[in-house]
Amino acid sequence: MGIVIFAVFIAGFWIHIERPPMRTMGETRLWYSMFLSVVGYTAYRRWRYPWLLSFTAVVATVFVIVNLLNPEIHSRSLMPALQSIWFVPHVTAYILSYAMFGAATIGAMILLWRKSYDRAVFCFIDNMIYVGYGFLMLGLLMGAIWAKQAWGHYWSWDPKETWAFVTCASYLGYIHIRLKKTPKSNSIALWFVILAFILLMITWIGVNYLPSSQGSVHVY
After folding, report:
1. pLDDT digits 0-9 by tens, 189-207
2. What is the pLDDT of residues 2-35, one digit of tens each?
3. Model's pTM, two decimal places?
4. Residue 90 belongs to domain spanning
5. Are residues 89 and 53 in the same domain?
6. 11 partner at 20 to 30 Å CA-CA among 98, 120, 187, 188?
7. Which of 77, 96, 111 is at the close of a domain?
Protein backbone atom coordinates (compact mmCIF):
# COMPACT_ATOMS: atom_id res chain seq x y z
CA MET A 1 0.00 0.00 0.00
CA GLY A 2 2.92 2.30 0.64
CA ILE A 3 3.92 1.97 -3.02
CA VAL A 4 0.44 3.04 -4.10
CA ILE A 5 0.56 6.13 -1.88
CA PHE A 6 4.02 7.00 -3.16
CA ALA A 7 2.79 6.69 -6.76
CA VAL A 8 -0.16 9.01 -6.06
CA PHE A 9 2.22 11.49 -4.46
CA ILE A 10 4.50 11.47 -7.50
CA ALA A 11 1.51 12.07 -9.76
CA GLY A 12 0.42 15.03 -7.65
CA PHE A 13 3.95 16.38 -7.57
CA TRP A 14 4.24 16.35 -11.35
CA ILE A 15 0.92 18.19 -11.64
CA HIS A 16 2.48 21.06 -9.69
CA ILE A 17 6.08 20.70 -10.86
CA GLU A 18 6.05 24.12 -12.49
CA ARG A 19 6.19 25.82 -9.09
CA PRO A 20 8.16 25.24 -5.85
CA PRO A 21 6.60 22.56 -3.59
CA MET A 22 4.99 22.99 -0.15
CA ARG A 23 3.75 26.52 -0.78
CA THR A 24 0.08 25.74 -0.05
CA MET A 25 -1.95 23.73 2.44
CA GLY A 26 -2.76 21.24 -0.32
CA GLU A 27 0.89 20.60 -1.07
CA THR A 28 1.78 20.19 2.61
CA ARG A 29 -0.95 17.55 2.84
CA LEU A 30 0.55 15.84 -0.19
CA TRP A 31 4.01 15.79 1.36
CA TYR A 32 2.55 14.64 4.67
CA SER A 33 1.03 11.65 2.87
CA MET A 34 4.44 10.73 1.48
CA PHE A 35 6.38 11.28 4.72
CA LEU A 36 3.84 9.33 6.77
CA SER A 37 4.08 6.42 4.32
CA VAL A 38 7.89 6.53 4.42
CA VAL A 39 7.98 6.74 8.23
CA GLY A 40 5.45 3.92 8.52
CA TYR A 41 7.34 1.67 6.11
CA THR A 42 10.73 2.44 7.70
CA ALA A 43 9.38 1.79 11.20
CA TYR A 44 7.75 -1.42 9.94
CA ARG A 45 11.12 -2.64 8.64
CA ARG A 46 12.59 -1.96 12.07
CA TRP A 47 9.82 -3.17 14.41
CA ARG A 48 7.74 -5.45 12.10
CA TYR A 49 4.31 -4.26 13.22
CA PRO A 50 1.78 -5.00 10.43
CA TRP A 51 -0.78 -2.63 11.98
CA LEU A 52 1.66 0.25 11.63
CA LEU A 53 2.02 -0.26 7.89
CA SER A 54 -1.74 -0.56 7.42
CA PHE A 55 -2.74 2.42 9.54
CA THR A 56 -0.17 4.80 8.06
CA ALA A 57 -1.24 3.77 4.55
CA VAL A 58 -4.91 4.41 5.39
CA VAL A 59 -4.22 7.83 6.93
CA ALA A 60 -1.98 8.83 4.02
CA THR A 61 -4.68 7.73 1.58
CA VAL A 62 -7.24 9.93 3.34
CA PHE A 63 -4.99 12.98 2.95
CA VAL A 64 -4.42 12.21 -0.72
CA ILE A 65 -8.17 11.82 -1.32
CA VAL A 66 -8.80 15.19 0.35
CA ASN A 67 -6.40 16.75 -2.13
CA LEU A 68 -8.00 15.01 -5.09
CA LEU A 69 -11.47 16.16 -4.03
CA ASN A 70 -10.33 19.74 -3.39
CA PRO A 71 -7.97 20.77 -6.21
CA GLU A 72 -8.56 24.44 -5.43
CA ILE A 73 -6.38 24.13 -2.30
CA HIS A 74 -3.36 24.24 -4.64
CA SER A 75 -3.61 28.01 -5.10
CA ARG A 76 -0.68 29.47 -7.03
CA SER A 77 -0.91 33.01 -5.67
CA LEU A 78 1.73 33.63 -3.02
CA MET A 79 1.91 36.56 -0.64
CA PRO A 80 5.35 38.23 -0.34
CA ALA A 81 6.03 36.71 3.11
CA LEU A 82 5.85 33.20 1.64
CA GLN A 83 8.45 33.94 -1.02
CA SER A 84 11.38 33.03 1.21
CA ILE A 85 14.20 30.48 1.18
CA TRP A 86 13.10 29.46 4.68
CA PHE A 87 9.71 28.18 3.54
CA VAL A 88 10.74 24.73 2.27
CA PRO A 89 13.16 23.75 5.11
CA HIS A 90 10.75 25.15 7.73
CA VAL A 91 7.77 23.19 6.39
CA THR A 92 9.84 20.07 5.67
CA ALA A 93 11.02 19.87 9.28
CA TYR A 94 7.46 20.33 10.52
CA ILE A 95 5.93 17.76 8.17
CA LEU A 96 8.57 15.19 9.09
CA SER A 97 7.77 15.70 12.78
CA TYR A 98 4.03 15.49 12.07
CA ALA A 99 4.54 12.17 10.29
CA MET A 100 6.52 10.74 13.21
CA PHE A 101 3.99 12.01 15.74
CA GLY A 102 1.23 10.45 13.65
CA ALA A 103 2.97 7.06 13.71
CA ALA A 104 3.51 7.39 17.48
CA THR A 105 -0.18 8.20 17.97
CA ILE A 106 -1.18 5.04 16.12
CA GLY A 107 1.08 3.04 18.44
CA ALA A 108 -0.45 4.70 21.52
CA MET A 109 -3.97 3.92 20.31
CA ILE A 110 -3.03 0.27 19.76
CA LEU A 111 -1.63 -0.07 23.30
CA LEU A 112 -4.68 1.61 24.86
CA TRP A 113 -6.97 -0.65 22.85
CA ARG A 114 -5.09 -3.76 23.93
CA LYS A 115 -4.91 -2.51 27.55
CA SER A 116 -1.47 -4.02 27.92
CA TYR A 117 2.11 -2.85 28.36
CA ASP A 118 4.33 -3.75 25.42
CA ARG A 119 7.87 -2.55 25.97
CA ALA A 120 8.76 -2.85 22.29
CA VAL A 121 5.81 -0.68 21.20
CA PHE A 122 6.66 1.88 23.88
CA CYS A 123 10.23 1.90 22.54
CA PHE A 124 8.81 2.61 19.08
CA ILE A 125 6.61 5.45 20.41
CA ASP A 126 9.53 6.95 22.34
CA ASN A 127 11.80 6.92 19.30
CA MET A 128 9.15 8.48 17.06
CA ILE A 129 8.44 11.27 19.56
CA TYR A 130 12.07 11.98 20.48
CA VAL A 131 13.15 12.30 16.85
CA GLY A 132 9.91 14.04 15.89
CA TYR A 133 10.35 16.57 18.69
CA GLY A 134 13.81 17.37 17.41
CA PHE A 135 12.39 18.13 13.94
CA LEU A 136 9.54 20.10 15.54
CA MET A 137 11.95 22.37 17.43
CA LEU A 138 14.14 22.72 14.34
CA GLY A 139 11.12 23.87 12.35
CA LEU A 140 10.15 26.25 15.14
CA LEU A 141 13.61 27.85 15.22
CA MET A 142 13.73 28.24 11.44
CA GLY A 143 10.25 29.74 11.56
CA ALA A 144 11.42 32.28 14.13
CA ILE A 145 14.34 33.33 11.92
CA TRP A 146 11.99 33.58 8.94
CA ALA A 147 9.52 35.68 10.98
CA LYS A 148 12.31 38.06 11.95
CA GLN A 149 13.17 38.62 8.28
CA ALA A 150 9.55 38.88 7.14
CA TRP A 151 7.88 40.81 9.96
CA GLY A 152 10.71 42.18 12.08
CA HIS A 153 10.24 40.01 15.18
CA TYR A 154 10.99 36.41 16.14
CA TRP A 155 7.80 35.72 18.09
CA SER A 156 4.55 37.65 18.45
CA TRP A 157 2.22 35.22 20.29
CA ASP A 158 -0.39 35.32 17.54
CA PRO A 159 -2.88 32.36 17.57
CA LYS A 160 -0.73 30.09 15.38
CA GLU A 161 2.38 30.69 17.46
CA THR A 162 0.47 30.28 20.72
CA TRP A 163 -0.92 26.91 19.65
CA ALA A 164 2.53 25.88 18.40
CA PHE A 165 3.89 26.59 21.88
CA VAL A 166 1.08 24.55 23.47
CA THR A 167 1.84 21.65 21.11
CA CYS A 168 5.57 21.73 21.90
CA ALA A 169 4.78 21.85 25.63
CA SER A 170 2.46 18.84 25.36
CA TYR A 171 5.10 16.64 23.70
CA LEU A 172 7.66 17.85 26.21
CA GLY A 173 5.18 16.78 28.89
CA TYR A 174 5.14 13.28 27.41
CA ILE A 175 8.92 13.12 27.52
CA HIS A 176 8.95 14.08 31.21
CA ILE A 177 6.16 11.63 32.10
CA ARG A 178 8.08 8.79 30.44
CA LEU A 179 11.02 9.38 32.79
CA LYS A 180 9.05 7.78 35.65
CA LYS A 181 8.29 4.51 33.80
CA THR A 182 5.62 3.31 36.24
CA PRO A 183 2.37 1.53 35.21
CA LYS A 184 0.32 4.63 36.03
CA SER A 185 2.70 7.02 34.26
CA ASN A 186 2.75 4.74 31.20
CA SER A 187 -1.03 4.98 30.86
CA ILE A 188 -0.96 8.76 31.31
CA ALA A 189 1.83 9.00 28.74
CA LEU A 190 -0.23 7.15 26.13
CA TRP A 191 -3.17 9.51 26.59
CA PHE A 192 -0.72 12.41 26.41
CA VAL A 193 0.40 11.21 22.98
CA ILE A 194 -3.18 11.34 21.68
CA LEU A 195 -3.88 14.71 23.32
CA ALA A 196 -0.68 16.17 21.91
CA PHE A 197 -1.56 14.98 18.41
CA ILE A 198 -5.01 16.58 18.66
CA LEU A 199 -3.34 19.85 19.67
CA LEU A 200 -0.95 19.39 16.74
CA MET A 201 -3.87 19.07 14.29
CA ILE A 202 -5.44 22.21 15.77
CA THR A 203 -2.15 24.05 15.29
CA TRP A 204 -1.72 22.83 11.73
CA ILE A 205 -5.27 23.02 10.41
CA GLY A 206 -7.80 24.04 13.07
CA VAL A 207 -6.35 27.44 13.98
CA ASN A 208 -7.20 28.79 10.53
CA TYR A 209 -10.91 28.44 11.34
CA LEU A 210 -10.83 30.17 14.74
CA PRO A 211 -12.41 33.67 14.81
CA SER A 212 -9.38 35.01 16.70
CA SER A 213 -7.09 33.90 13.86
CA GLN A 214 -8.67 35.84 11.04
CA GLY A 215 -6.24 38.72 11.51
CA SER A 216 -3.22 36.45 12.04
CA VAL A 217 -0.20 36.80 9.78
CA HIS A 218 -0.14 33.00 9.57
CA VAL A 219 -3.55 32.69 7.91
CA TYR A 220 -3.16 32.99 4.14
Report:
1. 999 999 999 999 999 888 8
2. 454 455 455 455 444 444 455 567 777 778 888 8
3. 0.81
4. 79-220
5. no
6. 98
7. 77
